[in-house]
Amino acid sequence: MTSSFDVAVVGAGIVGLAHAWMAARRGLRVALFERHAAARGASVRNFGMIWPIGQSPGQRHDLARRSRELWDEIIAATGLWCRRRGSLHLAFREDEWTVMQEFCDRHGRECETRLLTPDRIREIAPAARTDGLRGGLYGRLEIGVSSPEALAAIPRWLHEQLDVQVMWSTPVRQVSASTVTAADGRTWSAERIVVAGGTELAALCPDSVRRLQLSHCRLQMLKTEPQPNGWDAGPLIAGGLSLQHYPAFSDCPGLPALKQRIQHETPELNRFGIHLLAAQNQHGEVILGDSHEYGETVSVFDRVEIDELILREARRMLNLPSFRITHRWHGEYMVFPDPACSIDRPEPGIVVAVAPGGAGMTLAFAEAEQFWQSDAAW
Questions:
Q1: What are phi and psi of 294, to 5 degrees?
Q2: Nearest-5° angle of CA 336, CA 360, CA 242?
Q3: Domain spanning 87-140+215-335 has what CATH number?
Q4: How far apart are CA 311 and CA 367, in angstroms?
Q5: Whose CA is closest to 18, among 43, 38, 41, 45?
């Protein structure tokens, strides 16, 4: 087996795959190392949403749009399942509707969004409850994939089409200038090393964790049984709570009043960082979530209270034929103060790459492309 490469990438989550792809596209010989037999971290424990609507208009939204184009390439090349129905934010309160109108006025053209009436929502979104609905914000760009399927298919495609050597079940113990050392003592040489270890970064690059001021975010999610008789939910769905969560809406004048009302009426939702998202997968199951608890002291145990709050919001907003939950899980990802700074260089020839907290599926491909397009990056 080859023991010398141009590039070694540690971690086969979405960030690692993105860097392996972009390096291989430049004709470089790439090795990809993953400690498990398959990706098991945050990249497979999410909604599978590619979500430009959540990114701030301007540079971040442009990156998200480019990532979406790169996802289109991957989907076409691998035959991945994809839901191309756009996104829909539902407004059940007047302040939610106000913020959506403001967003459309300011950024509707750039972000390819438009406002929909309740009657139109009934036509395109069977999953949406329309009693008491003011309207909705529809986005054209958002798509959904199956994260577990994608994180399994992309490494195969990288190997078959771009000759990326994928080392499954190979935990890396140490990286140093030009050398990757596995836990069993095997070594490989590489001129450039990208460490994309997600929540396990502290073991390999503790100084980078400190410099980037990385901390943990823990979330809880649920999945329903397959909806009966081929029922189709329509677009990917979000609600008014998401307006205070995503940076895209931060410049809307009505947002402070919305935040104040949510904190006054439902502080329990803010306590756990809950905002309702719903995504139907290729099996007809609906993924629901999620929550956000931050810091190193968050309990490792799932909270029944959080699941109940997520389901309470889901029943308020959604009209699913079945709410029977068959799967519950949690995930963790890294967050940091400045989402624009997701790269650290602990020593020459080594780069630490971190997913922009909670938006790896949306941004990782374009951020990696941008990095590899710059020879000055190293």
A1: -115, 145
A2: 80
A3: 3.30.9.10
A4: 34
A5: 43
Name the helix (H) or strand (E) containing 128.
none
**CATH class for domain 4-44+148-212+338-377?**
alpha beta
Q: For residue 120, report the phi and psi dihedrals to the nearest 5 degrees.
A: -70, -35
Q: What is the pLDDT of residues 160-206, one digit of tens each?
A: 999 999 999 999 999 998 999 999 999 999 999 999 988 888 889 99
* Under-70 pLDDT residues of the chain: 1-2, 339-341, 375-376
Contact assessment for residue 329 and residue 148, using Cβ atoms and an 8 Å cutoff? no
Q: What contacts 376, CB < 8 A, 6 or more positions away?
A: none
Rounded to 10°, the helix 147-162/14-25 angle is 20
User: Angle 196-197-198 (CA atoms, 0-180°, nearest 5)?
Assistant: 100
Beta pairing partners, 325:
224
**DSSP classification of residue 141:** S
The domain ranges of the chain are 4-44+148-212+338-377, 87-140+215-335
Q: Which residue has the tokens 């184009």?
A: 69
Write the DSSP symbol of residue 214.
-
Total Cβ atoms within 10 A of residue 100: 27
153: amino acid identity, one letter? A
